Each structure stands twice: as structure tokens, then as C-alpha cells.
Amino acid sequence: MEKIFIGNNFLSKINQLFDFSRFSKLAILTDTNVAKHWLLPLKKSLKKKTSEIIIQPGEKEKNIKTVKNIWKKMFDFGLDRKSLLINLGGGVICDIGGFSASTFMRGIEFLNIPTTLLAQVDASVGGKTGIDFEGIKNGIGVFKNPMRVIIDVKTLKTLPKRELISAFGEIIKHGVISGQKHFDLVTSKKPEEFNQRELIKIIKQSIKIKSNIVQKDPKEKDLRKVLNFGHTIGHAIESLSWKTDSPLLHGEAVAIGIVAESKLAQLMGLSSEKNFIATEKGINHAGLPTRIKNLSVEDILPVMSFDKKNIRKKIFWSLPRKIGKVDFNIEAPKELVVKAVEQTKI
């Protein structure tokens, strides 16, 4: 597993956390939004000549065309197999940067510095890298752990409020998976009301929850599938929303998926109405969406067939029995899936 540093103002003392002298060359991958705030402080802190690869922000850039441009820059800069790619940014940068590094010259080391709360609690752990392909989120990718993850909560100061709230889609999911104590903590306030000390505690706990699962099942053959709770419907909604004039952030789509899949668990008799109400209330309290307009059941169902947990085109669900207990490899009757998906409509 990757070694993770979590704290405040780590960007300014990164050389104290890790020795970069053993690498032949360093390159930083970031996007235009993050570069405005954090690229120069990072370069000053590294105290070593670095090359920069700056791409446009957003999920739309997470594709093979962007990867080819990144590879070309890496060759142009003379990176070799002893070089290091530093990914400075949110989930898109961590995903595409990890994939680019893992495939460049059959794989070079990379280090992640996630600058969004969502990336800090989700993309920072687990070794998943990848890009979107033909409208399928994360359709292409590899498992490869970064050599280090450095989380500096100071970077959250420049995070838009919507991005902060979006992260709580994944954070609340961790609560449903792990137990009532964490769920109560992360739903006790609105996301923007947590102070820095409380956010560090939430980040550490979310990472611990995910790490414990990933260590037992790194390649998602079994237990790790519980982390996909909310994602079968959520990923389908997210992918479809890219084609509309109101694209969703990942955590927003997952929040809708959590509500819909909790409803599916209730309809199947796996979970109680009380559990569903508590979960939906937690999502609502965070200011996350629970419904979406302009998408029909007929739109969503075919996209779900590409879910990576599927086997022979059968959808296998990860569904909650209660807060703190999520089961996986569950088959669901199509008529109940339709009813659950209808739950997402405004």
C-alpha cells in the first residue's frame, strides 16, 4: 500500500517528507485551475529542476487524446524509467496521471498530491488509475499504487463550495459501509461547517476505512466491491449527465446512486425503511442531490450494463443491509431495479 502523509502546510515542506534526489528527472502534471494556486509553491518547495505538464480541468479531459499529449510531453522532456511524475490536482489528475505514468516506458513511479477533498478521501487510496472511454467512466485503466500520497488540507482553501460538498457523496458512503459512528460524524454538520481539524479527522478516518478494505482485496475480486455501493447507478447517471447542459460532479452522482441503491435494498427486503430514510436524510443534510431531471429509466439502464462488477452482462450489486453492513455480489429483479432507478427522477 502507498504511504500517506496527512496534515497542514505539507506542500511547503515536501522535501522533509521525501528524498527526491534519487530520481533522474521530475515532472509535475496539473491543470490550469490548480496551477494558478499551487504549482509555484510546489516547485519552490521541491528545490530541484522540474518540467511542467498543464492540461485543461474537468472530466472531459480524462481521455486517450489527453494521455497521448502527456506521453509526448514526457518524451519531449527526456523522462526515463528513473524519473518521477508528480500528480498535483483532483481526481482527474490523479487518475490520468497515474495511468500515464504506469504505461510510460512500461511504468515509472508517480506521487499523488490530491488537492480536492474528493481526491483526498477516494482517489488517494486503492491504486486505481484510468481514463474514460466511449462514454464509460474509467473504462480503461490499470491497478498501480503511487509511491507516496501527500495530503495538504491547506489546498482545500481554494476549493469551490460545490466541490467540497460533492466529496461528501463518497464520505457518507464510507459511513454507510463502516458503521453508525462514522456515519453520524460525517452527517452531524453541513460540509462547509467542519473546521480544518475536523476535516483532517474525517479524511484520516475515510482513508482508514477504504485502506482496510483494499488491503484485504487489492484487485476487487471480492470484498472491495462494497466500495462500489452507490456507483452502479451513480456512474451511469454521471456518464449520461456529461451529454447534458448540467453535468454532475462525481460525488453528486454517487449521492443520487446511494439513495437509489438504498431504495433497491429496501424494495428487496434486505434493508429497512428506517435505514433508507436515515441514508437519504444524511445525503440531503449535506446539500447533495438525491434526484436528477432530464434522464429516464430507459436512458440509465443500458449504461449500467457496462458496470465493471458485471459478469456475463449480469449486474451484481453492492447493497446495504443497515448502516455499517454492505453486502456484494447481489442479483436484483429487473422490475425492482426499475423502481429504484425511478427513485432518481425529479
Strand content: 15-25%
Biggest pleated sheet: 6 strands, parallel
How many DSSP-defined strands?
10
Kindly, what is the distance between the CA atoms of the first and last residues, rounded to a whole number of angstroms?
Answer: 42 Å
CATH class of the largest domain: Mainly Alpha
- Proportion in helices: 40-55%
Q: What is Rg? A: 20 Å
- Would you identify the regions where 5 or more consecutive residues have pLDDT less than 50? none
Number of helices: 13
Based on the coordinates given, report the CATH architecture of the largest domain: Up-down Bundle
Number of domains: 2
Structural class: alpha/beta
CATH topology of the largest domain: Dehydroquinate synthase-like, alpha domain
Give the overall silhouette: globular
CATH superfamily of the largest domain: Dehydroquinate synthase-like - alpha domain
Can you describe this structure?
This protein has 13 helices and ten strands. It has two domains: 156 residues, Rossmann fold; 182 residues, Up-down Bundle (Dehydroquinate synthase-like, alpha domain). α6 crosses α8. The N and C termini lie far apart (42 Å). The chain has a six-stranded parallel β-sheet with strand order 1-8-5-4-2-3, sandwiched between helices. Strands 6-7 form a two-stranded antiparallel ribbon. It has a two-stranded antiparallel ribbon with strand order 9-10.
